[in-house]
Amino acid sequence: MTRLWTPRVHAHLRRDEKLARVIERVGPFKLELRDEGSHFGALLRSIVYQQLSGKAAATILGRVLALYGDREPRPGELLETSDEALRGAGLSRQKISYLKDLARHADAGAIDRLHELDDEEIIARVTAVKGVGMWTAQMFLVFRLGRPDVLPVLDLGIRKAIQRAYGLRKMPDATKIEALASKWRPHCTVACWYLWRSLE
After folding, report:
1. Residues in contact with 135: Cβ distance below 8 Å, sequence separation at least 6, in sequence order
2. Which domains does the chain have, with CATH numbers?
């Protein structure tokens, strides 16, 4: 992800002394995009992974893909798949309703060309899908599209990392994070990547 990380971005973010220390500790910037498959497939994966451990979600996702010959389904194929078959793969009724709503949006053409839209429009389109909230939309912007200025203020990892890096007594709220991030813009994605990594 060299296009997000340049010497100029580095210099800009290091003007925040606390963030500069995080950058120093973490080392080189290595954000890897999940750009294989379609946008529909990426969002399908996000829904399957919601509120599950990585291992359990990977098992269920594997079973879902097995229904389609070990590949991501096309939206129409998912819509034609019975709820029973999807339940058999380990999906809850709620997640089946979310995936079918995603497939309906994709079938109508709302998902295919997301990369051509601005961040706000992408968030609006993605959160129009049942079960997809702001956090999932922002993770899509960061890890799928590599958008440079995403600030997930509700992300628990970001809140914990800021509390630790800035020596705060309690975890910061959205307003506090927005205020701190005014120094990082328009490179919040890089700052957030460093904050996430600082917890490891």
Report:
1. 152, 154, 155
2. 7-31+150-198 (1.10.1670.40), 39-144 (1.10.340.30)
Compute the distance between CA of residue 121 and CA of residue 181 in angstroms, rounded to an integer: 22
Q: What is the pLDDT of residues 143-195, one digit of tens each?
A: 999 999 999 999 999 999 999 999 999 999 999 999 999 999 999 999 999 99
Quote the tokens at residue 64.
């879902």
**Is cis: bond before 148, omega within 30 of 0?**
no
What value, to the nearest 5°, has the Cα angle with vertex 58 and ends 53 and 64?
Answer: 130
DSSP 8-state secondary structure symbol assigned to residue 117 = S
Report pTM: 0.91
CB-CB neighbours of 58 under 10 Å: 14
Cβ pair 44, 77 in contact under 8 A: no
155 is an active site residue: yes
pLDDT in tens, 36-54: 999 999 999 999 998 888 8
Question: Whose CA is closest to 33, among 72, 70, 60, 4?
Answer: 4
Structure tokens at 20: 């500069």
The residue annotated as part of the active site, out of 35, 70, 149, 155, is 155
